[in-house]
Amino acid sequence: MSLKKHPNADNTYETERLILRPMSAEDRDFIFELYNRPKFIQHIGNRNVNTAEDAEKYILNRFAPQIERLGYGNYLLITKDNNEKVGAVGIFEREGLDVVDIGYSLLEEFEGKGYAFEAAQKVKSIGMDEFGLSKISAIISKDNLSSQKLIEKLGLKFMKYVTLPGETEELNYYETE
Residue limits of the N-acetyltransferase domain (predicted)? Predict the structure, then answer.
């Protein structure tokens, strides 16, 4: 099946301190590292990215098709000052949710600097202003208090608890009003 490339699929965005560009196969080593961090596995889950090759397949099979089809998806976060890859942020279609979901993750050494909020705020704006999304949701594990605070700061409100198909963990579900 051939997907028609969305005209905005190559968009790179900037915030005060970050460059956000669509995730690509060349980011495989970074995704491998990020997705295997204990905090990522604890709060987001094990994505079975066990090698750099698995990471590349994950990018090509999960991230690339959505961004090519819709124009938005998962973005790599790169600092402007040091050109360091620090994390990822995106808006995702997720099985079991009727509203697209915003998500983010950072390497622990870059947490607490405001990068996640800065990037999530930009991606929320892109989704709503450029792509006309009327609502954005977020799902967060019950013990991830810092993410819950960030999502509320973004203007999303807790609505209910959800369990995604094929999962057992009940998650907090937030949505824009």
Answer: 18-177
62 near 102, Cβ under 8 Å?
no
Higher per-residue pLDDT: 6 or 143:
143
CA atoms within 13 A on the CB side of 105: 20
The dihedral formed by the CA atoms of 170, 118, 116 and 66, expressed in degrees to the nearest 10: 70
Looking at the DSSP assignment, which residues form a beta bridge with residue 22? 75
Q: What is the pLDDT of residue 121?
A: 98
Identify the helix (H) or strand (E) that includes residue 168: none
Q: Which of 75, 77, 68 is nearest to 102 (CA)?
A: 75
Please state which architecture CATH assigns to domain 11-174.
3-Layer(aba) Sandwich (3.40)
Measured between alpha carbons, how far is 39 from 136 in angstroms, rounded to an integer?
A: 24
What's the rounded Cα separation, in Å, for the pair 32 and 147? 22
| 72 CB burial (10 A radius; 0-12, 13-18, 19+) | buried
